[in-house]
Design a protein that fits this description.
Elements lengths: L8 H29 L15 E2 L2 E13 L14 E11 L8 E5 L14 E7 L8 E7 L2 H46 L4 H21 L3 H27 L8 H10 L4 H15 L1 H21 L5 H30 L1 H10 L3 H6 L1 H32 L4 H9 L5
Antiparallel strand pairs: 1-5, 2-3, 2-5, 3-4, 5-6
Helix pairs in contact: 1-3, 1-4, 2-3, 3-4, 3-6, 4-6, 4-7, 4-11, 6-11, 7-8, 7-11, 7-12, 8-11
Length: about 400
């Protein structure tokens, strides 16, 4: 016979109905957002004349180090331009297109050395076709890195699948779908001038629906984590709007963003600020998904270990785990940005600007705001998810709790 504290069938049914009532509107809103914001396929005109160029692969035949006249791009730290600089002449055989088999002579990038381009190295060239007034031109573009990056991606997939099994494979499939949503929906919609925050929320919600259920299966535990994720996304979006307005973040803080504003023409100040908000929402997805799944799993395991535990007890136990997760995640977010921005940090060290002035500058202020807003949303998602999980799991039979626990793994 069930224990006195075991939930009856009507309680379990009411719990499922409540979760469904919360999730269905979110799903409908996501679908409506995707339909309303879906890009039409008409890219904005830029007014820039596009050159007729190709990017064939080539293989290095030989490399010759030569001496060239210095230009303004070779300026030394003291401001002077050297009379002569080292440069590389590369002879390569074209591998693709109608020019395949042709040998061309190009100048390599100044950052490369002969050790970087031994014979046999695959590179990418730029071929500007001849016009009525200009001859055909070949230019060194970059080193071809498709093969090593492909090997690295395959190694990642093999390791994840070997350790996590089928669930890891489903997680990789979810990651591919997530990138598909970004490439097919979010980026084209942003270029067409759709509301960036709405695009970010609709795209992120769609990604979370697919990724969570695909990787972790259909269960009340996954649904609990999904609701916690949506709560975190909502908090992040609201705080992002407040931070952008309070700090006067206009979204144009770097050369790339300024160039984007020039090329598209449709991105005014409001649009670029919205682009910052879209980035805030998208940047928090991965870590937010991580903590909500972890918290839901922790509460489920606590309930399986102590079937008589009440929601308050489970919440306290889950938050003990959550506090440790908060501490480690804050470091993760901060140092991930510091590592990515290391060249910029070194450049600022060279400039010797006051730190107060530095962090208040547009580019740093935007990144600081993005990091802090995402971190606050992440931290608040932990107690929200824990509370939802504690309320849900105590209304389920221990048998179901243990069954979901046995079939669940954190990837």
């Amino acid at each position: 016979m069930p224990s006195p504290s075991a939930p009856d069938r009507s309680t379990r049914r009411r719990t499922a109905v409540v979760l469904t009532a919360l999730l269905v509107p979110a799903a409908l809103a996501t679908i409506a957002g995707l339909v309303a914001l879906w890009p039409s396929g008409d890219r904005p005109t830029t007014g820039i004349v596009a050159l007729d160029a190709e990017y064939p692969r080539a293989q290095v035949v030989s490399v010759q180090e030569e001496v060239c006249r210095g230009t303004s791009e070779d300026r030394l730290p003291d401001g002077t331009v050297p009379e002569s600089v080292r440069c590389l002449s590369v002879v390569a055989t074209v591998l693709d297109g109608e020019a395949a088999g042709t040998e061309v002579d190009v100048w390599a990038l100044p950052t490369l050395t002969t050790a970087d381009l031994p014979p046999g190295t695959r590179i990418v060239l730029e071929r500007y076709l001849a016009t009525d007034t200009e001859p055909e031109v070949w230019v060194f573009h970059d080193v071809a890195r498709t093969a090593p990056l492909g090997v690295l991606a395959a190694a990642f997939a093999v390791v994840v699948t070997a350790v996590a099994g089928l669930r890891g494979l489903r997680a990789i499939a979810g990651l591919a779908i997530a990138f598909g949503v970004v490439a097919v929906f979010m980026l084209p919609a942003l270029l067409e001038g759709r509301d960036p925050l709405a695009v970010g929320l609709a795209g992120s919600a769609a990604i979370m629906f697919v990724v969570l259920y695909l990787a972790h299966g259909f269960s009340l535990r996954t649904t609990t984590a999904l609701l916690g994720t949506f709560a975190g996304l909502g908090v992040t979006a609201v705080l992002g709007v407040l931070a952008a307005n309070a700090a006067r973040l206009n979204g144009v803080t770097s050369e790339d963003e300024y160039r984007l504003a020039q090329l598209t023409g449709q991105l005014d100040g409001t649009q670029l600020r919205g682009l910052f908000l879209c980035g805030v929402v998208l940047a928090g997805l991965g870590v937010l998904n991580d903590v909500t799944i972890t918290q839901a799993s922790a509460v489920w395991e606590l309930r399986a270990a102590d079937p008589s535990a009440q929601p308050r007890t489970l919440f306290r136990g889950g938050m003990r785990i959550g506090r440790d997760h908060i501490a480690s995640t804050v470091y993760t977010i901060t140092f991930a940005y510091a590592g990515a921005a290391l060249p910029v940090l070194l450049l600022l060290e060279v400039y010797q600007l006051p730190w107060a002035l530095t962090i208040g500058g547009g580019e740093f202020a935007q990144e600081i705001a993005r990091t802090l807003v995402g971190s606050i949303g992440l931290v608040l998602a932990i107690p929200l998810t824990t509370a939802i999980a504690a309320a849900v799991v105590t209304r389920l039979p221990v048998r179901q709790v243990r069954r979901e626990g046995a079939g669940h793994a954190h990837v």
